Sequence to fold (486 residues):
Amino acid sequence: MSATTFDGFRRPDGTVGVRNHVLILSVTGLTGPSARRIGRAVPGARVVTTPYGSGLMGEDAIVQDRALIGFGRHPNVAATLVVGASPPKVASIVAAIRASGKPAEPLILDDCGHDAITLTERGTRLAARLSHEASRLRRERADLRDLFVGMECGRSDPSSGLVGNPLVGRVVDAIVALGGRAVFGETIEGRGAEHLLAGRAADPTVAQAIRDAVARRERAAVAAGMDLLGNNPGPTNVAAGLSTIEEKSLGGIAKGGRSPIRGVLDIAQSPSGPGLYVMDAPAYAPESVTGLVAAGAQVVLFTTGVGNSFVSALAPTIKISGNPEASARLKEQLDFDASPVFERRESLESAASRLLALVLEVASGTATWGEILDEGEEVISRLAPAL
Amino acid sequence: MSWQATSLAADDNVATMLGAAASGGRVVVMTPGGELEIIAREAIALCHKIALVDIAQGAPVVKYGDCIGEATAPIRCGAWVHTHNLRSRRARLAEGQAP
Fold:
């Protein structure tokens, strides 16, 4: 693996963006449609909305705010228009984003006589000015120490544990070895291998946090009436060669590589330093990817077996499959074809070099299929009942 | 290139078939340490596992550099490794049995 640099946008807080988005961020369900109208009026701006607002309680309220602020502070975001209904809520999010040194402008329904048309008009002017300012920024040379990648798998098949995930693991090992950051979530994927995952922890506290996180989620699933271990791996897995739950789980967590795990992060929580982290979060791809991106991951490495179209709105999401049939079928979805490894035409090491080169190329501006087709979305997890 | 199976970590004692093996057939295994050649003792299907060494009954079966379970019978080099001769240690722990 030779290339280790990319060209990115240096932010006031020292992070480096691989994109230069202007973000229209709707922080309440009331303002989502206006945020989308503003986004259409200012092409190139990214729109992120949440359908929820006041009424969220406890951990739900904490996760929503942390994720919304995380989007505004995200390295790939140059400036944010914060759209909401209540002045205190918008003010607190604007202040938290501005603390990173980047511009954030408030746009409040309450100040517009609760008229969505007025809100849209004012928002369009504000977003246009933010876009003009952002367009003056230029890319500068950066290296792997400035890179934070998130790892995800969705709609896996036998090629995932054998090719896609180990391949991503190799690239992650290279990024972490050179001072970069990486995070993967999907806590429940660790069941059956939590003792092995804990064995990779950098210290005993992290090891215990990993075991606790998996046990908590497993208990919650059992309490909801699900049987996670009794019939796992299932008949389809066994027919495909998987013999034990440990083997199945290891195939999933192989996308994390073999570096020491520095910590267990909550949903949307940023790591405190370089290295490999796990995020205790739901496994469903839209929620999982959103948590990783809200934590600051600039690029997502997303492995799939048969295909999965979800990508982040803010972080270019590189789709990787080792399945020859899917690679032939999904030419405008899969960014990296790992099927030569599955078909024994290429070694894993050679493919890992190709993939790291693509990661750096995308970090420098090359578009992913998901970006070209505008598949991006952010979906913040809901955890409990609301008022 | 002509390998039929791959192992992902240096201390793995099984490899995964990337093609089907015939009984008595020569299997070239791509390992992190280079190519290894073994003879398949039986037919082994795509994505199923082949033993790279003799594995004693009760010994750990290692894939991805980690223990994926233990041998429930002696496994000879070149044999098919699956649910008939490999069982989870974790699932038995979950059922409250001694490992």
Observations:
- The longest helix of chain A spans residues 158-177.
